Amino acid sequence: DNQEHSVSLSAYYIGETEVTQELWLAVMGNNPSYFDGSQNSEPAKGEAQGKRPVENVTWFDCIAFCNELTKKAGLGDSECVYYSDAALSTVYTMSDANSYTVPQVKWDAKGFRLPTEAEWEWAAKGGKEYRWAGTDEQDELKKYAWYAWYDDSDGGDANNKTHEVKQKQANGYGLYDMSGNVWEWCWDWYDTLPNPLPEDYSGAASGRYRVLRGGSWDVIAEYCVVGVRSVSYPDCSNVLLGFRLALRP
To answer: Do residues 143 and 245 touch, judged by C-beta distance below 8 A?
Structure first.
């Protein structure tokens, strides 16, 4: 359901990597991840546990994290992007996330936020018309992505777990793991995409699901394709779901 379409995006920054467990721990004081290094979830040999992507986070958790990081980075409450009220006066917190409050957005704020689906896809393409982030050839995909191996036609080597970020090659924009490792939450409600997208399109006004992009350690190559759209209920958390950050320059 992701047909070729044109986009018009304002300048933005996007995270070089998925948010790591060590960053989540530093900001939030806990680590919700299943792959936390305990029994049956140890990192691959030679990989740093804290540099594995955080997972097992809901979409709402990610919203609260963005604001907390904005504050801890010294940008101040006024630059937080997400609010619990329509007047944009009460900054969204983990208590709002725990009650599944749908956030209001101050799009011109300079703080950390989730990328829109359009921003995510543009970044993942890396300036190329490749199927995956970094390559157009499935035979080369293992150099760029952690994904599943089910038979010889797949070729993935994730070995049923997440992996330290930046272990594979980057795409054309210097971004890592945009195909594979963990699915990444985007801001948007899921709906049919218009063509062309309105400028700085941020998705439908409402919906049931939020968008996921990029594939994960548990899926085959075809689900790691840059253009593939997946979805989840925003209150869902599991071992496949993580995210990366975006912000205005």
So the answer is: no
| Cα gap 105→21, rounded to integer Å | 26
pLDDT in tens, 184-214: 999 999 999 988 899 999 999 999 999 999 9
Query: Residue 37, Cα to own-chain centre: how many angstroms?
Result: 21
What distance in Å separates the CA atoms of residue 7 and residue 197, rounded to the nearest whole number?
5
For the chain, strand residue ranges (E) read: 13-14, 82-83, 104-105, 183-189, 210-213, 229-232, 241-242, 246-247
Six token digits for residue 84? 């619990």
Provide the Cα torsion 34, 133, 231, 60; round to 10°.
50
Round to whole Å and give the CA distance between 64 and 215: 23
Q: State the pTM of this model.
A: 0.96
Rounded Cα gap, residues 135 and 128, in angstroms? 9
At 5, list the tokens: 């379409």
Maximum Cα–Cα distance across the chain: 55
- What letter represents residue 86's amino acid? A
pLDDT in tens, 117-131: 999 999 999 999 999
d(CA 101, CA 229): 24
Helix orientation angle between 59-72 and 21-28, rounded to the nearest 10 degrees = 70
Question: Hey, what are 97's tokens?
Answer: 């996330």
